[in-house]
Specification:
Thiol Ester Dehydrase, Chain A; single chain; 1 helix; 7 strands; seven-stranded antiparallel beta sheet; mainly beta
Length: 146
């Protein structure tokens, strides 16, 4: 696995954003993007559990990163989040996302948020379309990315 460079002001992983979630993404050889993170009271929804919007943001971001790493400069046009279990704070969670297909301009991705015991707590599905006009050329790029 190799680390994916962070990108500036991103709410999830940008070192320039003082409110970021301090996430470092990693890419597996098969293109799956993963991370492990522990959420804190700063991300609380119900007492002791993560806000659903934080789970959704993490799943959107991991899918977007996977699509970017596959060579597409995209923005989300449709997100579906399926909440199966509450996500406890102060416990490690594992997040992964992967591109699952493309039809025309629509690139589809899937993501999962796993609890410490491996249980799938939240599933994300997303549709992304090319939107290079929204991004700086260096966004998500490193020496290994076309």
């Amino acid at each position: 696995m190799k680390p994916i460079p962070e990108h500036g002001m991103c709410f999830i992983c940008g070192s320039q954003n003082p409110h970021n979630l301090d996430v470092t993404w990693w890419e597996r050889d098969d293109g799956t993007v993963v991370t492990d993170v522990t959420l804190t009271e700063a991300q609380q929804g119900p007492p002791g559990y993560a806000h659903g919007g934080v789970s959704a943001a993490l799943l959107d971001e991991v899918m977007g990163v996977a699509v970017w790493r596959a060579g597409h400069q995209v923005a989300a046009v449709n997100l579906e989040v399926e909440y199966r279990r509450p996500v406890p704070l102060s416990q490690p969670i594992h997040i992964e996302g992967v591109v699952v297909g493309q039809m025309g301009r629509a690139i589809r991705a899937r993501s999962e948020l796993h609890l410490a015991d491996g249980t799938v707590a939240v599933i994300g599905r997303g549709v992304y379309v090319e939107a290079p006009h929204l991004f700086d050329q260096s966004f998500y790029q490193d020496d290994d990315t076309p």
